[in-house]
Amino acid sequence: MKNVKYIELKNQWDYEEDDSEANGQLSFSAKIVLIQLILLVFFILFVLFFQGTLNLRKSVKSENTRLPEWNKSSSIKRVSRFQDNYFTKYESRYLNCTEFINGNQGAIDSYVISGKLRLHKDKLLGLQMDCDSIKNRLFGDLPPFKHLKRSIAFVRNIYQLYELQEAFLSMIYHPSHFYCYAIDLKSDERLKKSMRVLSNCLDNIIVLDKEYDFDRSGHKQDEAHFDCSKRILEKNWSHAITLQNFDLIIKTPEQLSDLSELLNETSIMGSDHALTDRYDTNADWTPVGMMLFKNESEVPDEILHKKLVVRKSLNEVVLSKVFVLSMFEKLNLNMVIKRFDNESLFGVDEMMVMTLYENYLGLDGQVEVDFTDSREDELTRFTDWQFNQPDGPNAECKSHWLRHSICVLGVEYLQEISKSPMVIANKVLETFDFGTVICTREMMNDNKTGRSPDADWLSKRFPQFRGMRVKVNS
Ligand SMILES: *[C@@H]1O[C@H](CO)[C@@H](O)[C@H](O)[C@H]1NC(C)=O
Ligand SMILES: *[C@@H]1O[C@H](CO)[C@@H](O)[C@H](O)[C@H]1NC(C)=O
Ligand SMILES: *[C@@H]1O[C@H](CO)[C@@H](O)[C@H](O)[C@H]1NC(C)=O
Ligand SMILES: *[C@@H]1O[C@H](CO)[C@@H](O)[C@H](O)[C@H]1NC(C)=O
Ligand SMILES: *[C@@H]1O[C@H](CO)[C@@H](O)[C@H](O)[C@H]1NC(C)=O
Ligand SMILES: *[C@@H]1O[C@H](CO)[C@@H](O)[C@H](O)[C@H]1NC(C)=O
Ligand SMILES: *[C@@H]1O[C@H](CO)[C@@H](O)[C@H](O)[C@H]1NC(C)=O
Question: Which positions, given as ranges, span the membrane (predicted)?
Fold first, then answer.
């Protein structure tokens, strides 16, 4: 059943559906062409006379010429603000990103008390899914894209609501970056179908045909990330960032490109000792015992027979292209993926990449440095942890809500996010507070994101960064 809200909106935007093929119909009949020509002339005159007072939208692509707020003239919904794609003006009346980012508690309280912006899958506005509409939502309100020095591959495993993924993409979309998605097979048809429609509109967006049985224990996460990486391996990116469904990128596409240039061949991840109940401690962990290398004859004995120390960090990592290429070229990745993806264990998706990177295997992009200490990754993921407490209301969280020991990021965190050096924040929930997503996008467009780290900052925190600099300069 369509609820009241949906009907209201449908009426309001009915014109879009009537005219969804407006451009294509031109050739059907000379009469229509004539009428449209007259309208066009009329329209041009109108624009010339009233240009100053019209709210001109920024052009998306050359074919999408600058059109004013002209209700019947285009299939593209004309919204004045990004949030209008997903919420009514009434729902977003208390959203004031500038004030939230500045930490104005009064503004935050008004918004929170009014119920926040939340998306539920049975209460959505409905989106036009033709390519023009999609592109318009993604970047129609943004300035023209700047040239990037390096390209990033965003590799994301998803399972829930299309709107959240579209909004995430709208923050980091750039024609030079690459986006690969792996979908949970238990997701609903709406997500699956919408993602595939989206990927058909833009060349640099890929959705894997294969679907995965993700679960809370992290099963199939590594496999999906590596399948995606493999799929886009030939593309010209310099770093891949692995992501999960609720990860919010908090740096702009330009900042990430600059970071990739600074990192050069270094990968970024934390290093910790793995918990012994999360992997099979009795298995043979020597590369030879694991049949890790495709061709053992070129691997030194001291590598082949040295037991790997199983390492742990987070699912989110920043991987250099040379390292990823080298893993695919030299290792039997399928076997090591299976080794970690043990059905009877929990938290299996935070060990494999670290173990392969932090044990020296002679791969490209690796350096022989000391990873035996526990080091937190201070660059990849911002998280407000509250351990050993139940999910739900939580006084320690600024947003007062906890999920899996992590505070859900409401708009209360925006000021902190805007000062953070991190690349990703975890986690936002669209059902809890979509305002965080909308305001982080605004933060990016207003150049109010946290500063990107410089080489000194990275050197202090990441032994692999120091090691790589020594290697390159020697
Ligand atoms: C477009 O619609 C708005 C309200 O929906 C109305 O105020 C405005 O006059 C319309 N513009 C044109 C050009 O029809
Ligand atoms: C946000 O709040 C400031 C200060 O109260 C106000 O000037 C501004 O117009 C508000 N912006 C929005 C979008 O409501
Ligand atoms: C690939 O990207 C690098 C920058 O990261 C650039 O220097 C190079 O020219 C690109 N190669 C191709 C074939 O586009
Ligand atoms: C990046 O890495 C390559 C390969 O190791 C090296 O030749 C180059 O000098 C490095 N660039 C910088 C700026 O360190
Ligand atoms: C999974 O881990 C358990 C416990 O460590 C171990 O007994 C079992 O052999 C492992 N299964 C596989 C398929 O490796
Ligand atoms: C394995 O590596 C050795 C030494 O580099 C090479 O001679 C041999 O042809 C390789 N074997 C295969 C199957 O690629
Ligand atoms: C963004 O702000 C920083 C300083 O905070 C400045 O160095 C940079 O040039 C600004 N970028 C843009 C695109 O305005």
Answer: 28-50
Angle of CA points 425, 427, 428, to nearest 5°: 105
Taking the C-alpha atoms of residue 323 and residue 374, their distance in angstroms, rounded to an integer, is 22
Contacting residues for 262 by C-beta, under 8 A, at least 6 apart: 452, 453, 454, 455, 458
Query: Ligand 3 in contact with 436 (CB < 6 A)?
Result: no
Q: Is residue 39 part of a domain?
A: yes
Q: State the angle between helix axes of 333-340 and 221-231 in degrees (0 to 180), rounded to the nearest 10.
A: 160
Give every strand in the sheet of 178-184, ordered side by side: 205-212, 178-184, 152-158, 239-243, 318-320
Residue 327: the pLDDT is: 98
Other Cβ atoms less than 10 A from the Cβ of 4: the count is 7
Indicate the number of domains in the chain: 1
- Ligand 2 centroid to residue 254 C-alpha, Å: 28
Residue 474, pLDDT score: 82
What's the 266 CA to ligand 6 centre distance in angstroms? 28
- SS3 assignment, position 374: coil
Q: Which helix (H) or strand (E) holds 414?
A: helix 414-417
State the closest ligand 3 atom to the C-alpha of 261, by its place in the atom list counted from 1: 5
- The pair of structure tokens assigned to 226 is 């590596």
- Low-confidence stretches of the chain (pLDDT < 70) are 1-34, 44-79
Asked if 103 and 415 count as a contact pair (C-beta separation under 8 A), the reply is yes
pLDDT for the residue 24: 33
What is the phi-psi region of residue 194: left when phi exceeds 0, alpha when psi lies from -120 to 50, beta otherwise? Answer: alpha
For residue range 161-210, list pLDDT tens digits in order.
999 999 999 999 999 999 999 999 999 999 999 999 999 999 999 999 99
Is residue 5 assigned to a domain? yes
Q: How far is the CA of 447 from the centre of ligand 7 (A)?
A: 6
Q: Per the domain annotation, does 37 fall within a domain? A: yes
- State the pLDDT at residue 249: 98
Range of the domain at 37: 1-14+28-51
**What residue type is assigned to position 462 of the chain?**
F
Q: Is 238 in the pocket of ligand 3 (CB under 6 A)?
A: yes
pLDDT of residue 38: 75
Amino acid of residue 71: N
Distance set, CA 433 to CA 164, 180, 427, 439 (Å): 11, 25, 11, 11
- The predicted-structure confidence for 353-393, as pLDDT tens digits, reads as follows 999 999 999 999 999 999 988 899 999 999 999 999 999 99
Which pair of tokens denotes residue 350?
């935070």
From 174, 235, 236, 256, give the residue whose CB has the most ligand 3 atoms within 8 Å, as the site to mutate. Answer: 236
CA distance 172 to 267: 20
